[in-house]
Amino acid sequence: MANELDVRDGLELTDRGLRRDGRGWIPVSGELHYSRVPRERWGERVRQVRAGGIDVVSTYVPWIHHVAAPGDARFDGGLDVGAFVDVVRAEGLDVVLRIGPWVHGEIRNGGLPDWVQAAPVRHRTNDPAYLDLVRTWFGQLAGALDGRGTPATVLAIQLENELDDRPDHLLRLKRLAREAGMSSPIWTATAWGGARLPRGEVLPLFGGYADGFWLDADEPWHPSFRAHFFFSHVWDDPGIGADVRPARETDADDATDGHAPTAEPAGAGGTDAAFPPATCELGGGMATAYHRRPWPSARDVAAVAHTKIGNGSTWQGYYMYAGGTNPGPDLQESHASGYPNDLAPLGYDFHAPVAASGRLRGSHALLRRQHAFLGAFADLLATMPSHLPDVLPAGVEDRATPRWAVRGNDESGFLLLNAHQPYEPVGPHEDARFTVAFPGRTVTLPSTPVVIPPGTMARWPVGLAAGGVTVEWATASVLTLLAGPVPVLVLVEDEGIAVEVAVRDGGTVGVRPLVPGRRPHRIETSGGRLDVLVVPAAEADDLWVQAGDAPDARRLLLSPDEVTWDVSGLVSARTPRAKARVLAYDVPRRSFEDLPLALVEGAAEVLDLRPAMTAAPGTVPSSYGSSGRRASAPDAGTVAGLAATFVLDAPAALDDPDACLEIDWAGDVAQLVVDGEVVDDQLWDGSPWLVSSVDRGVRAGARIELRLLPLSREAPVHLPPPARARLRDSAGQLLALDAVRLSRRALWRERRAAATALDRRAP
Question: What is the per-residue pLDDT for 581?
């Protein structure tokens, strides 16, 4: 990087973080795969991720999706990557292209086309024959981007994926990409697994998941997952992708221009000193393999991201942020393609914040509060390193010692607490108080010891100045800062913890309790005035912050329903209610007011569909075979022969663009079949199956069938605890269809006059 080829005006990358137009910037990127989402949904998905606080969209570019046969490259329809870049940029977001050529992504051959996989070359090396294939692919991709693959349009390009011992190959790929006409201000590479990267050439990116499918079915929750719920300065994760990380020998031919670049492991106890700590794969959820089926909760997802902020992350990157569906059958990672895991042929929902169906999950609400905080205080946070307390947990089994860290400088900071992890509750922490030392002063909070309840994830300000007022500390989580004649600091009550705000005025610090509610509290000191709004914990999930780099470009919305906005700032709401209840914080009036919305289209209803069983299930075996120690999924013929078949009604409401099938079932494998074609599938883990009827071709008048394969009580598969308990209570094999619903929501849009009125300012 640091050269004339990759420059984007106004963008700087330093050892502390990124700066954009002279201000600190903490990018928040979310993975959204254009080839796994219908083209007509791209704009909607981008707006949904932006409403979650995402400002960068990252995507794999899977070679196998585009070039099924040599010379037959497709970039039309849902594969038009150039058009996808246009959609993202038109919505005001940046783009990261993860171009591979090997990308993994639970894709067949890691994304290499079958004919490339079968070629007599040394894959993922500098074998000239392999590089010739890659050169052609990069040329095809650059042609499809048609001038878009430049620093002005693309924020970053990732080279390869999870390649831990070939720094020379990464450099060669970088050269090939440039030769093809692709460049970006930042080049990246994944750094987990002790990766050796070409020093100074790529930004090392890390990851962290709450749980993963890549362990054997009988393995317990692994320490590599546990570690992500603690604050630390260790960024490497040896577990991610370890089961598909080949044992490669050093290749004497794998050199660039006859010399080897400087390379070293990135992140064993930190990162390459030239670069700040950054991530690209914080688990937005988790894929489901046949043998192991994790289902991370919303708090599991949010807690991992929360700790990374406390650890000093300067780039929050999620995989996945929006789920999808493979663009054809047999494109998934599987035992048949030589991988240790069998995944569903079509479904790639990933339990992501934005489901493959387009519905939002609870993780969207928890994460967007974190992202609002990052957006509002990025200029401060970008210069604030992470500090750990003197007393740390004894190890990843320690659930008694409070887990906390401070992002801070010499004057101020933010204290982050985490008392959540999956499976094993953390805390409560009795008699908790925290001491933060600054040069010349020590801050202790709260005023008296408190109990930190299990599940707490808090971001408390310390020494935060706004509007001429210094909030010495507060025991409520920072959300954002709004502009106005008197600035508004928005805090969110942390459930079970009394809200106190300490204010420094000259040499005196006064502490006052604040009652959460919908009206702010006025604080006046000799230095200025500040309003502090404390949102009750019960309403926290209803908060939406219309982002902006400056306080006067932000709006605070309160809605229990899904909210998005377009580039002009106009709000849209998807609500099942006859009247949308979306509220906006109007700065001059210092209160929440109804945001006037007009009905655009659709109707709100929930239909209870009652499928009829037309074929009873057969008796299933405990196993369909295995690869190594991991159970194999049944093939399509076995599913068709042993599954129960249910026929669904096909009402006209299926054709509504927002219609969603909500299927509550229990068993092993489910397929949704329309006129004899399998259009979607799911491996059961206890979660509801959500299907967009329009996206999957489930239409009125069609013959719609559900095939549900029972699960043997003795099956060697790992299930989440509630699902495991239900299987254990079954009589030999488990099969149930509990409910099938069809839900629709009306679309409402903010009246333009209302948007204008909310921009008014009063003294």
Answer: 62
